Structure formats: structure tokens, C-alpha cells
Amino acid sequence: MFRIALLSSVLGGLNPALTIGANENDAVNAGTSGVKASNNFVNTTESEVLSDFSAEEGSEKNLLWKAKLGRTSYGGPVVAGGRIFIGTNNASPRDPALDGDRGVVMCFDQKTGEFLWQHTHEKLGGAEMDYPEQGVVSNLAVEGDYAWYVSNRCELVCLDVRGDTVNKGKGRVVWSYDMVKELKVFPCQLAVSSPLVVGDLVFAVTGNGWNIATNPWTFPAPEAPSFVAFNKKTGELVWKDSSPGKEVMEGQWTSPVYADNNGKPLVIFPGGDGWLYAFDAVKPGKPVWKFFCNPKNSVYDHYNKRKSDRCYFIAAPVVHDNKVFIGVGTNPEDGSGVGHVWCIDVTKQGDVSPVGDNFDPKAPENKDSALVWHYGGKLPKKGQREYQVGRLLSNVTVADGLAYVAEQEGYFHCLDANTGEMLWMHDMLTSTWATPYVIAGKVFVGTEDGDLLVFDHGREASEPEALYMGSAVKKGINVTDGIIYVLTDSFLYAFGKK
Predict the structure, then answer these.
(1) What is the CATH number of domain 9-444+453-495?
(2) Average pLDDT over residues 388-405
């Protein structure tokens, strides 16, 4: 069985949805309040945060409200304009007339948790294109009265955030673009991308990939695009790019990010071929630069993925201080394996990968490379671990000169964001899909065991406090106006001082 999260990652961990105005410095991540438009889960607007709360049944603490969702929920929580938007499945139908397996977007009142409306999508087809019970994974990008997301049917959808004013409880579609029908995209198991809105354009990853239901695997749509841009108002296709082509290793389960290259706006796409591609965000065309995020001598084997040492991306790229931070990973069902975390200068042009497998940024042969530092790879001596860092499902989080890395296997790393030097590492004793969230001197990380671990933010290691949420926390939290929103598979919780 295949299960993915938008790391959003996790799968965006995985990864918040973004809207960008004319001035990036004024832009705010639509998915996470107080977070600048960079996929970086650092809240700079809240000066304090509640750290004593619980969702444990019968022992709830500082719980303001909770809302029932489906049984699998990966999209959100996105807070915007007094509303909260969630992507989930239809395991607990809000409308008895719309039963069965569907992808669902739900909208709630931010303060009370009152259900406002939902919009549902039927399944696309078999598990090879739309895996059962996964629902809508995409985070909504919200700007004013409109919200954009990618449905489980591989449609880019624009909704009115106010819902349908005539049919209470239902969403209202402004426009929808079917990427399977119009672009012949074959989404490998599920389309999950969280859109990025820049000016009048909305960007997304299509999810084009392999049909893993065949033996051997087949690649049905080698000419279909991996990256697309649409007019945000009309839904007209403006641009498409197929750079990864048939070199996609499996699927493409991540999202783009915005970067300001000294006044030149870029959109950076993670490709399913293991390359990062940067394009002009105003007039996208050919790549401005590209960077390969694996050793050149690595290998990806469709039939032995657990042992493969070449990876693609589940996490989304994070931009901070003219640098992009990203870790590689694979389908979470592949289990643990060797990983790599990269820090890359966004101001270069061309193929800016390191030469050969020399990951020393000061090496003469790397004078034209955009490599700032690399962390990971296999360790030369046998010890407790075979590699320095494992595969990632979640985004790197960068704050105050520190880079936090939560690998799937459950090791939590704190690195010097300028050099990549490891400062400390903590074994959480359970796996994680959730992106670390930094706020008011604390770092929150969700785990598969249902705990929300709270670390002290800093260069020195600390023992975390564990707050129990009842079931796995696979997404980064969201703190808005002093309220902490936590998403589990089946519930959305709001915590605050009573």
C-alpha cells in the first residue's frame, strides 16, 4: 500500500502553499501564518507560544475546539481570511448524498471550528493514478477571495473561498483545468502539488510519472509536462516544461518555491529526476539554472528501491537569504536509506552542480558551482549508522543561523545553516513526516507515534517535551493569532489559553 504526505512536507512535507505579490518581502505564506514566502516554517510574528496542551481523549488540555475530518488528511492546515482550509478524504461524509471514496476540501471558521463548506472530487481511476483513500493532499494557496489547489484527479482548481452562497455547505468552482485530459499527464499514484501564485501566474508540479501497476513499469506520457503555469484569473495555460522527461524515477510528489535573485524573481521546481530547476517567475521559459541533488555515481533501481542510493524529492525546497535548502527522499514505503541535504546559491546560471562527486564548495573545480554546503552520504567507517543523514519527507527549516532537518527514520538534526556543520542530533525513537516549525524560541516536530515534540530553539541540544495528539502528526503545525492548529489523520485541533 502506498501512502504519501505532502510534506509539505511531508509530502512539503510536506510543504505550504504560497501566494506572492509584487513585493516578495511583503508576501506571506498562505499556508502558515507569519511565515515569509519561502516554504520556511519559521513564524516571526508571534512573540510567545502555548506549550502546555494535549488532545489525549479524556485528558484534553487547552483544547478550544476540534473538527472531524476524513480518515486520511494531508492538506493544510491553511489559515487565511478567518477561515481554515483542509485537504482530506471522504471517510466521514459531510453530505450523505456524496458518499464513497472521494477527495475533499473542507473549510472551517477559524475562531469557532464551525464547518462552512466542502468541495469533493470523484476518483480519477485505478490506484496507479489516484490511490484509494488518500483524498486531496495539496495545500490551498489563498489570495483574497480565491484559493487554488491540485485535486486528486490532477486538476488545478480555483475556488471561491466564500463557498456557494446559494447552496449552503458546498464550494463554488471559479475554474478548473484537467491536466490529464488536456496535457496527457499520467500522475503516478496521486497528484499532490501545492500551487505557488506569483503575480498573475499560478505554478504547480503536474505529478507526471511511471505506471507502477505494470510489470515492468511503463512511462505512459514521456512528452507530458512536469511543470506548468496558468493565468490565475482565467485558468488559461501560459507555460509548460518537460525538463525531467522520462528520467523521472517514480512519481513527482512535491511543490515549487519562490526565490528573489537580487530583484529577479525565480520559481524553483524539484524534478522527479533528482534535479532542481530554476525558471524566471515572470516570463518562464528555459531553466535559468539546474542542480543535481545526488552523487553522480548513485543508482536508482525500480526493483530494489530500499537499497537504491539515488533519490528524488518528497520535501519541498526552502529559500532563505538567497539560498535554497532541500533534502532528498523517496516513497515513504521504501523505508530508510542514505540521504543528502543541500544548500545552494540561487544567484548562479547554467548547470551549477558540483563537478563529479566533489562536494567541497571551495574546490577549484567547483568555482562555477552553486554548492554552498552538503550534508549526508554514506559514512566511511562502520558504526551505529551507515550514513550521516537518512531520507527526508519534510522540509528543512532555517532560523537564526540554524537549519533543522527531521529525517524519516526519526533522527532530528540541527546544523549550522552557513556551513552545514552538525551541532547536535536527537533520536526521536519513531519516524516522522512533519516539517519542524520554529516559533518564539521553540521548535515543534510531529511524530508517527502521535507526539508533538517541543525542543528549545538553539545551538545546544535539549530534551524535548512530548505533547500527545492522539494519532500521528504528519504535517507542520500552524500558529495564528496565538492559536495552535494541529492536523492529524482524522481531526483538526485548535489549542489556546482558556
Answers:
(1) 2.130.10.10
(2) 97
